[in-house]
Amino acid sequence: MTSLLEVELKEITLSKKTLEINHVLELLAKYKETTLNTLISQFGLGPVFDSYRNGGNVTTLHNAGKGIFADEATSERYTEAFDRKNYEKDFPKKRKLKFQTSSQITDDYTGKILRKDGTTHLDHIVSAKAVHDNNGARLYMSAERRNEMATSDKNLAWTDSSLNQSKSDKDLEQWMARQNKRTPGETNAQHYEINQEAAARKNKEAKQHVQSTVRRARNKYYASGVLSSGVDQGLRMGKKQALGMFLYELQAALIPEMTEYFRQFKSYGTLSRRIEEFSNLCMRLQARMAAKAKDIARAFGEGLAGGFTANLITILVNTFATTSRNMARMLNDSIHALIRAFKLLINPPSGMGQSQALLEASKILTAAVTASAGVILNESFAAYLKTTPAAPFADLIAGVLGGILTGIVSVTLVYMIDNFVAVMKSVGAAFSLIKYQLTVSRDDIRRIYLDAVSSIDAEYQLILGRIYLEYEELNKLTSLAYDCGRLAGLQLKASQELARANGVQENEILMGLDDIDDFFMN
Predict the structure, then answer these.
(1) What rounded mean pLDDT belongs to the chain?
(2) 219: burial class by Cβ within 10 Å (0-12, 13-18, 19+)?
(3) DSSP character at residue 291
(4) Backbone dihedral region of 193: left (phi > 0), alpha (psi from -120 to 50 degrees) or beta?
(5) Is 167 exposed, middle or buried (0-12, 13-18, 19+ CB in 10 A)?
(6) What confidence score (pLDDT) does residue 68 get?
(7) Which H or E run includes 121?
(8) How many Cβ atoms sit within 10 Å of the Cβ of residue 460?
C-alpha cells in the first residue's frame, strides 16, 4: 500500500517537473520582445544604418597625430606639405597699398626708415613654417584660414630685406639672441640695431594672435563636428530603433493573423469572402500598428538621443585614446541602453517598485551589451568563413548563426537576472527534498525544518511552514481516525476529515452507518 509520505513525495516531484517546464516556456516567451527587437536592430538593420569607424566620426588631434582620419578631406588638409607661397599670396597687394598710402615706412624692429623698393620686406613674426607646423592649425583650419591668420597685420612686420632673410623661419626672440654670422661677438639684435623691447612686444602679440585664432578655430571645428556627426549618428540610431520596433510589432501581429487566416481559408468558401477577410486582416494590422505609433516614436527619440550622446562621448574619448570601430559600436549601444535604463529608473511605470525598476534596467543593459558583442563576434566569424569554401555565403551564414547564438545568450542572461532569487530557492528546495525523502519521522522533519528556517528567506519559510503544518495535520487526523479508544462518532468524523485531506471525492466518503453498510454489502 502506498504510504501518505510516498504520495506527498510524488506530488512534490510532479510539481517540480511542472515548474521546470514552466521555466523553459518562460525562457522562450517572456523576453521575446526585448531580445527579438534587439536582434532585428543589430543583425537585420545594423548593416544598413551603422556607420562606425576607427577613431569615431570626427578627427581629433590625437588621432590625426596617429594618421587616423574620419574622412579623406581632413586627411589631405592635415598632411599637406609646406609651401611658403601659400602664406605669401597677399604680400604683393599689401606692399603696393603700403607704398601708395604711406608717406614713409618705418621698420617695426629697428625704428629706421625704409625705402619704397625691393629692399623693404614683410616678415611673418610667427614664421609661415611655424604656422604650418602647428598641427591644430592644419586640422582645424583650411589653407585659406591659415593664410589669413599668417598674413594678418597682427603677425606682420615691415623690415629690411637683409634682416628678414637672416631671421627666415626662426623664432624672433631666439634669433635675436644668436651670434651674428657676419659680425663675430655681436648678437643679431646688436648687429641689426633692433629695439628689443618693441620687437618682444610685437612677438608676444603675434603669438597670442596665432594661439587665440587656432583656439577659436578648434572650438568651431568641434562644435560643428559634434553637431553634424551627432545629428547624423542620432538619426541613424533613431531610424534603426524605430524601424526595429516597427518590424517586431508587425511580425508579432502579422504571424498569428496570417496563421488564422490560412487555417480558415477553405471555410471562407468564395473568393469574395476570402478577399473580404483579408481586407479585415489588413485593417486589424493597421489598427494594431497605429496603436503602437507612440511607442515607435519614443524608440526613435531614444535612438536619436542615444546616438547623439554616444557620438559626443566617442569624440571626447578620442581626444586622448583612439576608439576602434567595434568599441564605438559597443559604446553607442551601451549609451542607448543606459538612457533607456535611466528613464526607467527615474520614471518607472505605475505599479513598479524601485527594486523591480532596477532589475528591469539591468536586463536592458545586459541585452544591449550582449547583442553588441554578438555583432562583433559575428564579424570575426564572417571574416574566418571568407577564408573557407563557404566564402560566397560567409555573411549570410555568420549573420544567421550569430543572431541565433546571440539570441540564446541574451535570453539566458536576462532570464538568469530576473530569476536569480527563484533559482536560489529551487536549489534550496532540492536539498530539502533530499532530506525529506531520507527521513520519515516527525521528529526528524521538525529538526530539518528548524535547521532550514535559519538560513532561507521569509517566503520560503512560509512554503516549508505550510508543508510542515499540513504534515502535522495529516498525522493528527491519522491518529484520531485509527484511535479505537475514542467514541465511534469522533473516530468517524476524524476519518472523514482524513479522507478529505487526502483528496477523496465527497461522494465517496462514508458519512454514516448507512454508508458503511452499503460499502460492506457491495
Answers:
(1) 78
(2) exposed
(3) H
(4) left
(5) buried
(6) 94
(7) strand 120-124
(8) 18
* 394-418 and 354-385 helices, crossing angle to 10°: 160
- Which H helix or E strand runs over 127? none
Half-sphere exposure of 325 (CA within 13 A, CB side): 13
What gap in Å lies between CA 64 and CA 82, rounded to an integer? 17
Whether 89 and 122 have beta carbons less than 8 Å apart is answered as no
The answer to whether the predicted template modeling score (pTM) of the entire model surpasses 0.70 is: no
Backbone angles phi, psi at 159, to 5 degrees: -155, 175
User: Contact 303/237 with Cβ under 8 angstroms?
Assistant: yes
Nearest to 322 by CA among 52, 9, 39, 66: 66
pLDDT > 90 in the chain, percent: 36
What mean pLDDT comes out for the span 465-484?
55
pLDDT tens digits for range 460-474 = 555 555 555 555 555
Q: What angle do CA 208, 147, 217 make, to 5 degrees?
A: 55
Question: What tens digit of pLDDT does each residue of 258-285 get?
Answer: 988 888 888 888 899 999 999 999 999 9
pLDDT at 327: 78
Task: Please tell me the distance from the alpha carbon of residue 433 to that of residue 12, in angstroms, as a whole number.
Answer: 8
41 vs 26: CA distance, rounded Å: 23
**pLDDT tens digits, 63-77:** 999 999 999 999 999
> 377 exposed, middle or buried (CB, 10 Å; 0-12, 13-18, 19+)?
middle
Residue 197: name the closest of 229, 222, 170, 173 by CA. 173
- Any idea how long the chain is? 522
Place of cell 467514541: 487
Whole-number Cα distances in Å, 23 to 4, 17, 416, 467: 29, 10, 11, 23
pLDDT for the residue numbered 16:
45
Sole residue written with cell 625704409: 114
DSSP 8-class letter at 391:
G
So what's the pLDDT on residue 211? 96
Confidence band, pLDDT 50/70/90 cuts, at residue 502 = low
Hey, what's the cell of 265?
481559408
Helix, strand or coil for residue 403?
helix
The DSSP annotation for 132-189 comes to: HH-HHHHHHS-HHHHHHHHTSGGGEEEEEHHHHHHHTTS-HHHHHHSBPSSSTT-BHH
**53 exposed, middle or buried (CB, 10 Å; 0-12, 13-18, 19+)?**
middle
pLDDT given at position 176: 96
Do residues 334 and 366 lie in contact, with contact meaning Cβ atoms separated by under 8 Å? no
The predicted pLDDT at position 446 comes to 62
Distance CA 79, CA 233 (A): 27
Confidence of residue 1 (pLDDT cuts 50, 70, 90): very low
- Give CA 3 to chain center in angstroms: 58
Three cell numbers, residue 160: 629690411
* Sequence-separated (6 or more) residues with CB below 8 Å from residue 505: none
- Among all chains, which residue has been given the C-alpha cell 534587439? 38
